[in-house]
Amino acid sequence: MCGRFAQYRGMRDYLRELESEQEVIGLVGDEPIDRYNVAPGTQVQLLHSSTGGLVVAAVRWGWMPQWAKGKMPPPINARGEKVAEGNYFRQIWPHRALVAADGWYEWVKDETDPKNKQPYFIRLRDRAPCFFAAIGQFPEDGGESRVGDGFVIITADAEGGMVDVHDRRPVVLAPDLAREWLDPATTLLRAEQLVLHQGRQAEDFEWYPVDRAVGNVRNQGADLITPR
User: What is the pTM of this model?
Assistant: First the structure.
């Protein structure tokens, strides 16, 4: 987790669920984003706080420190158990953000044929937006992306029946905790507690098989999240 997700509502819908009192900086509209198959390496609408307010801006999914370039593709996720203490993400750990999403995909291997994988879509049972905890490098004021900018989604161990789908999942924060995550006044220690202990629990989610067409990043559309 998490290698693909859906971000299809309008940004105003996500902000309404977040209920932030900060002034919003960036283009915010009612029109649906309509991305049902968001892939790594693409520009994604991200939320982060600045001195002027809450910034909405497109940032590349994936980041690596300068000293690691050329050794591997940029990671797209960071393990919550290690992100605060490790050296790899030390530079961006203080720079918190949210990915507003509608759910994510995981693939389950067929026990009789490991090459055959069934995709599942995972979302909140009440169909509310998900707020993925993220960290990254991005212009504070929401300006044009620079070389080296990007973000990663923080993940945690899966729990309950969700383990049958995948052993990792994004840290999804309830709206009040998502606001706290973004708040510049939130200490690094408190931020670590949020990702380690206060992500939404497995029972808050539902998951079901979907069409294998989601495996091709060129495929988009609401049919990708239709139960099969």
Answer: 0.94
Asked whether 48 and 98 are in contact (CB, 8 A), the reply is yes
Query: How confident is the prediction for the chain on average, in pLDDT?
Result: 92
> Which residues neighbour 21 within 8 Å (Cβ) at sequence distance 6 or greater?
none
Q: Is 180 a catalytic residue?
A: no
Q: Can you name the residues that pair with 155 across neighbouring β-strands?
A: 79, 170
Q: Is residue 130 among the annotated active site residues?
A: no
pLDDT score, position 160:
56
| Contact indicator for 59, 136 with CB cutoff of 8 Å | yes
- Number of Cβ atoms within 10 Å of the Cβ of 109: 11
Q: Of 17, 23, 106, 180, which residue is the catalytic one? A: 106
**Contact in structure between 122 and 183 (CB atoms under 8 Å):** no
* Element containing residue 37 per DSSP (H, E): strand 35-38
Asked if 226 and 213 count as a contact pair (C-beta separation under 8 A), the reply is: no
Q: What is the pLDDT of residues 58-105, one digit of tens each?
A: 999 999 999 998 878 999 999 999 999 999 999 999 999 999 999 999
The residue type found at 216 is N
Contact 106, 77 (CB under 8 A): no
Q: In 10 A of CB 40, how many CB atoms?
A: 19
Cβ-based neighbours of 184, under 8 Å, separated by 6 or more: 49
- In single-letter form, the type of residue at position 185 comes to A
